[in-house]
UniProtKB/TrEMBL annotation:
One GO BP: xenobiotic metabolic process
Lineage start: Eukaryota, Metazoa, Chordata, Craniata, Vertebrata
Biological source species: Dipodomys ordii (Ord's kangaroo rat)
Protein name (Swiss-Prot/TrEMBL): unspecific monooxygenase
CDD domains associated with the record: CYP2C-like
Gene name in the database record: LOC105999365
Keyword annotations: Endoplasmic reticulum, Heme, Iron, Membrane, Metal-binding, Microsome, Monooxygenase, Oxidoreductase, Signal
Subcellular locations according to the entry: Endoplasmic reticulum membrane; Microsome membrane
Length: 490
């Protein structure tokens, strides 16, 4: 009986503490739905479609509101004006990374994606400069992507026009580009190490986008005490980290500090330069996590976009025909597409932008946090508060993109058929946390897709109108449904 009394008193104390913590801060934070003790508003959020829930909340509470995902408040920014004001106008104050418990357990605050403070600033600055040194934004990087585009086409020819699921092959191409940057070598598409890497990456994205992962990130205590897909995720992460560790050992043995070959070499050179600095962020642990971050981000976002792109091009064959007509007119059939072609291909450029807008790959991006107490729209947001930006609300804004739920390249074309830029185009987020590899991703999408359409007709096994483009999961990323496609040589 004594144990029961203690348990009841303990639970009562937790409930009172939860109510006090939630009530004491709500007067300073934006409005929002009333939270329940301990679990907050989680029962009011559809973990299978978080974006839809945020849209419904915004209709009641406006463009800035507070949700309690568990016992901690999260401020949600909905719509272009609120997102821009935070990420651009107050970029420094909103540049923190909010806690994401599942990957945080593996990364331990290191790397470039989930880190904070000086460590994040140094890793981001170093990563960006190293990618520039390795050719990002210049002809050398374009050459790498063109080589891989040619290899991709040759692999697609081997299908002999027969139907197949393109997921794996479309992942290989961007994965090999990032491998050439980090390891200085690409893999044959049938290499067993390469197959293992791809399997791990594909599985991780599916797990991270599942409803269970959204629950685990809200209640991280589940990670330690319950079985589930989070354990498989940790196993996959550890596999990748061990693989990178072996690569680092190989690089260290053959390192020439005067002639770094790739990202790992540049990092090892920096480590040598800072070996007498006890506060240095350049450690083996940080190298492995940063390389893993670049590898995962540089592979999955592009490969998923490519997979979605081909699905949309099959569903809308009239769009595909117009792109191929532009390819014939500007590039022809006898040379490889190059980045200079893009400025002469406004319709193709509009299609690529519309694909990224329509698929809404990262509906809420990764969570931010405020780095200091900040007054924002007459609310006072305490330092460390998690911030969620609804990229869906920006990419699907009805005023900027009429009929936003429709796939329409005209969203990025003016009345004369010229390409039209939009400040609302934020598939890579915005501000100080914008994707480091944005330039590389845009280059890959243009070169891979134009090279494919230069060489093949895309054929669906079903009536194009019957193709479903609804994502099968969109917790972390929008994951497209599986489909079969035929690549018929032109």
């Amino acid at each position: 009986m004594d144990a029961v009394v203690v348990l009841v008193l303990g639970l009562s104390f937790l409930l009172l503490l939860s109510l006090w913590r939630q009530g004491s801060g709500r007067g300073r934070l934006p409005p929002g739905p009333a939270p329940l003790p301990i679990i907050g508003n989680i029962l009011q959020v559809d973990v299978k479609n978080i974006s839809k829930s945020l849209t419904n909340f915004s209709k009641v509470y406006g463009p800035v509101f507070t949700l309690y995902l568990g016992m901690k408040p999260t401020v949600v920014l909905y719509g272009y004006e609120a997102v821009k004001e935070a990420l651009i106008d107050h970029g420094e104050e909103f540049s923190g990374r909010g806690s994401v418990p599942v990957p945080d357990k593996v990364n331990k605050g290191l790397g470039v994606v989930f880190s904070n403070g000086e460590s994040w600033k140094e890793m981001r600055r170093f990563s960006f400069m190293t990618l520039r040194n390795l050719g990002m934004g210049r002809r050398t990087m374009e050459d790498r992507v063109q080589v891989e585009a040619h290899c991709l086409v040759e692999e697609l020819r081997k299908t002999n026009g027969l139907p197949f699921d393109p997921t794996f092959i479309l992942g290989c191409a961007p994965c090999n580009v990032i491998c050439s940057i980090i390891f200085q070598n690409r893999f044959d598409y049938k290499d067993q190490d390469f197959l293992n890497l791809m399997d791990n990456l594909n599985e991780n994205v599916k797990i991270l986008s599942s409803p269970w992962m959204q629950v685990c990130n809200v209640f991280p205590i589940l990670i330690d005490y319950l079985p589930g897909s989070h354990n498989k995720l940790h196993k996959n992460f550890n596999f990748l980290k061990n693989y990178f560790l072996e690569k680092v050992k190989e690089h260290k043995e053959s390192l020439d500090v005067n002639c770094p070959r790739d990202f790992i070499d540049y990092f090892l050179v920096k480590m040598e330069q800072e070996k007498h600095n006890p506060q240095s962020k350049f450690t083996y642990e940080n190298l492995i996590v940063t390389a893993s971050d670049l590898f995962g981000a540089g592979t999955e976002t592009t490969s998923t976009t490519l997979k979605y792109a081909l699905l949309l091009l099959m569903k809308y064959p009239n769009v595909t025909v117009k792109v191929q007509e532009e390819i014939d007119h500007v590039i022809g059939r006898h040379r490889s597409p190059c980045m200079q072609d893009r400025s002469l291909m406004p319709y193709t450029d509009a299609v690529l932008h519309e694909i990224q807008r329509y698929i809404d790959l990262l509906p809420t991006s990764l969570p931010h946090s405020v780095t200091c107490d900040i007054k924002f729209r007459n609310y006072l947001i305490p330092k460390g508060t998690a911030i969620v930006t609804s990229l869906t609300s920006v990419l699907h804004d009805q005023k900027e993109f009429p009929n936003p739920e429709m796939f329409d390249p005209g969203h990025f074309l003016d009345d004369n058929g010229n390409f039209k830029k939009s400040d609302y185009f934020m598939p890579f987020s915005s501000g100080k946390r914008i994707c480091v590899g944005e330039g590389l991703a845009r280059m890959e999408l243009f070169l891979f897709l134009t090279t494919i359409l230069q060489n093949f007709q895309l054929t669906s096994l079903v009536n194009p109108k019957a193709l479903d483009t609804t994502p099968v999961a969109n917790g972390f990323a929008s994951v497209p449904p599986s489909y079969q496609i035929c690549f018929t040589p032109i």
